[in-house]
Write a sequence for this structure.
């Protein structure tokens, strides 16, 4: 850095003078040998990749079926599918991209384009820079543990040290006390004569004491048409039971203790975040943020300074320079970094295993706090089963995962292609 | 290829119509969710139960996690989960943690697992092993390096050992039976959390020995040979089969698998229904997933425990000492400690 260009040139000249004169032939030979070495190394790595891909495709493609795509995990391999895991992966990765890209790009722009003027600011900038470059090398399991304390239980700031992740503040949930009628208790052997029916009593506050069944209490029944009001009767299970089957079907044991359940709307939100989709996406954000920041910085650095100088010269503010000149020309480079980062996020298992841990789930996430599973977890689960059929299902899952990865990348490549403009 | 995919599509359509029919016919009224976590050994049984149950009660969400027996109990004893899968009984420390957090629970055995010792298919010298010989092979104090050191007349080849990971309930159980509470297993074994890796390891070397649940042996019979274990009481070698595990003659390596149910969650109708489904179908679910059903009387006793609210564990004494023995003897009301 300290050397001026002239000394550099002199240096090279001196070195060229000192270099031993070699015959033209041996120089050419060395050149050729080096080229063959490069070709050989490239061929070996491409061959390994081709072998891996072929073995996965050969194993996986025959089991790919509509069932595998749209089904739920089942104990019978021929009926098993990975729809919940597929949806979980799409949710997690889209959320993660939505959160990470703006934050990562903004950080990189701040560090690259708005250089500090004061000493203190410069010092804090370099501290941030050092942190980011070190964070890129941290194993992802560590981020999983960090995510568990930071997002799932939020450092127990909301005062629930005994039950990490349980909702303290929430929005969008309706609570009910669920009673079963006398006929449906599986531990009273009379289920055959009376229809099983379940009644819901709305609860104002989730911390209310359990509802005590009272005669003539209004309850709702969950049916195809939604919640239907029903009048329930109260009977003593140990004493005489009503004989009218209609009445018996709507009778609740006087000593019954209801189960508190909740219906959550699509906009349901809680603090701390719990083991939900959002906590998972935020944890993956931690994993890929350093990669995105660093690659964005590189892309911004690659924009020739003559462009910035030109824009500043015609009177643009620094903000206008960034928004109209630097960022648009850096987008192809930013997209390359983001593609790599997102591919990592899709395949990441360790942090998700710590945050979610759930492998059998039948539904796709319904709201940001819902429990979920992702494809790598489902694949891992299938590979560890004894039955061979599950192993080929896992291979099919890998092919689907690859497909999703490629389609994510295709979108990014498309954006990159659209944005690419000659710089001069 | 094309014909096949159309065939798959038809199967899917049939499945969807069948599924929707059962939805409308069944109990769509019951809502709620059941949270399960714990042992990877019990997981297939719980998955099968969850799958069958949600066919009958489609609006109930059943989530099953795999954190290992210890990890499952960690969440269970603070009340985070409704049901904990366990491949060994609850430990005194976990029991006390549950007590401190005010968590009462039901302990329900659901199936047997026969811990199977396997050798390479071409291994023609090992016909049976006694407990003492197993100790020689697996404990750090026994430390037999070659097969000749285990029994006279066996070849002078080095033994290669493949064992499940130290976090698994299977490892814990094997260690307790073979090395006792104070002893330790050898540290120079190849270990893996994935039992399929162990299968590959043992089937790849003629001098190898390993152990895992009976389901993995049943699926890999063509590559492996199971070893008969000399029953300490009968003094004769017994092979692990469904019959010997159920009768209890495959000792001491047949172990019961459990589910633990939070008593507070058990009040919820959806958890009650799920547990009832689990217990009623446990024998079928066990067979379907490669395990061995328990005697019917044990399931009936478990039903009784639930109905009468008998919470607590059978595998600890009042002084928090471990209790061991056959399920049929231990799983009674008299031994219940709460």
């Amino acid at each position: 850095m300290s050397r001026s260009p002239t000394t550099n040139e002199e240096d090279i000249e001196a070195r060229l003078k000192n270099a031993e004169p070699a015959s033209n032939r041996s120089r050419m030979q060395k050149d050729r040998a080096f080229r063959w070495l490069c070709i050989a190394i490239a061929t070996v790595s491409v061959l390994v990749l081709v072998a891996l891909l072929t073995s996965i495709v050969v194993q996986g493609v025959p089991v790919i079926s509509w069932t595998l795509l749209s089904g739920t995990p089942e104990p019978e391999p021929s009926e098993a599918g990975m729809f919940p895991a597929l949806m979980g992966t799409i949710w997690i990765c889209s959320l993660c991209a939505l959160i990470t890209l703006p934050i990562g790009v903004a950080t990189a722009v701040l560090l690259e384009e708005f250089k500090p003027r004061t000493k203190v600011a410069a010092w804090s900038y370099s501290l941030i820079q050092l942190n980011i470059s070190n964070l890129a090398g941290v194993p992802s399991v560590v981020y999983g543990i960090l995510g568990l304390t930071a997002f799932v239980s939020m450092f127990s700031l909301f005062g629930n040290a005994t039950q990490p992740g349980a909702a303290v503040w929430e929005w969008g949930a309706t609570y009910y006390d669920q009673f079963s009628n006398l006929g449906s208790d599986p531990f009273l052997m009379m289920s055959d004569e009376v229809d099983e029916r379940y009644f819901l009593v709305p609860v104002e506050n989730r911390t209310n004491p359990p509802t005590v069944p009272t005669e003539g209490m209004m309850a709702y029944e969950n049916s195809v048409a939604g919640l239907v009001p029903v009048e329930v009767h109260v009977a003593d299970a140990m004493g005489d039971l009503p004989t009218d089957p209609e009445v018996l079907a709507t009778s609740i044991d006087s000593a019954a203790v209801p189960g508190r359940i909740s219906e959550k709307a699509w906009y349901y939100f809680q603090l701390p975040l719990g083991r939900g989709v959002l906590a998972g996406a935020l944890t993956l954000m931690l994993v890929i943020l350093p990669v995105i920041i660093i690659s964005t910085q590189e892309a911004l650095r690659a924009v020739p300074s003559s462009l910035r100088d030109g824009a500043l010269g015609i009177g643009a503010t620094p903000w206008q320079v960034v928004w109209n000149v630097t960022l648009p020309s850096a987008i192809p480079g930013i997209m390359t970094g983001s593609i790599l980062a997102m591919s990592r996020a899709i395949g990441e298992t360790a942090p998700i295993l710590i945050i979610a841990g759930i492998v059998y789930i039948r539904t796709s996430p319904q709201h940001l706090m819902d429990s979920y599973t992702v494809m790598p977890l489902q694949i891992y689960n299938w590979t560890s089963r004894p039955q061979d059929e599950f192993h080929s299902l896992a291979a099919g899952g890998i092919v689907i995962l690859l497909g999703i990865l490629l389609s994510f990348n295709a979108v990014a490549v498309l954006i990159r292609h659209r944005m690419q403009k000659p710089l001069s | 290829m094309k014909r096949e995919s159309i065939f798959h599509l038809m199967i899917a359509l049939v499945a969807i119509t069948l599924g929707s029919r059962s939805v409308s016919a069944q109990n769509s009224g019951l809502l709620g969710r059941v949270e399960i976590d714990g042992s990877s050994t019990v997981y297939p049984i719980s998955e099968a139960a969850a799958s069958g149950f949600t066919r009958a009660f489609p609006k109930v969400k059943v989530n099953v996690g795999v954190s290992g027996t210890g990890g499952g109990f960690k969440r269970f004893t603070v009340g985070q989960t409704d049901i904990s899968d366990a491949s060994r009984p609850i430990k005194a420390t976990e029991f006390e943690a549950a007590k401190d957090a005010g968590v009462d629970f039901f302990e329900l055995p659901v199936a047997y697992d026969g811990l199977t010792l396997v050798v390479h298919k071409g291994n023609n010298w090992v016909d049976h092993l006694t407990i003492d010989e197993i100790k020689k092979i697996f404990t750090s104090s026994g430390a037999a390096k070659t097969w000749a050191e285990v029994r006279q007349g066996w070849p002078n080849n080095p033994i290669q050992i493949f064992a499940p990971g130290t976090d698994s309930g299977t490892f814990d159980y094997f260690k307790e039976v073979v090395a006792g509470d104070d002893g330790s297993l050898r540290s120079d074994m190849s270990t893996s959390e994935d039992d399929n890796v162990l299968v590959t390891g043992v089937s790849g070397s003629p001098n190898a020995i390993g152990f895992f649940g009976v389901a993995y042996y049943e699926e890999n019979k063509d590559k492996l040979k199971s070893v008969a274990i000399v029953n300490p009481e009968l003094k004769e070698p017994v092979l692990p089969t469904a019959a010997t595990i159920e009768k209890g003659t495959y000792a001491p390596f047949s172990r019961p698998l459990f589910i633990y149910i939070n008593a507070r969650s058990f009040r919820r109708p959806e958890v009650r229904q799920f547990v009832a489904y689990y217990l009623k179908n446990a024998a079928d679910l066990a067979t379907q997933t490669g395990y061995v059903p328990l005697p019917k009387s044990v399931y009936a006793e478990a039903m009784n425990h639930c109905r009468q609210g008998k919470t607590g564990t059978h595998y600890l004494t009042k002084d928090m000492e471990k209790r061991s023995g056959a399920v049929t003897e231990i799983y009674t009301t008299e031994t219940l400690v709460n």
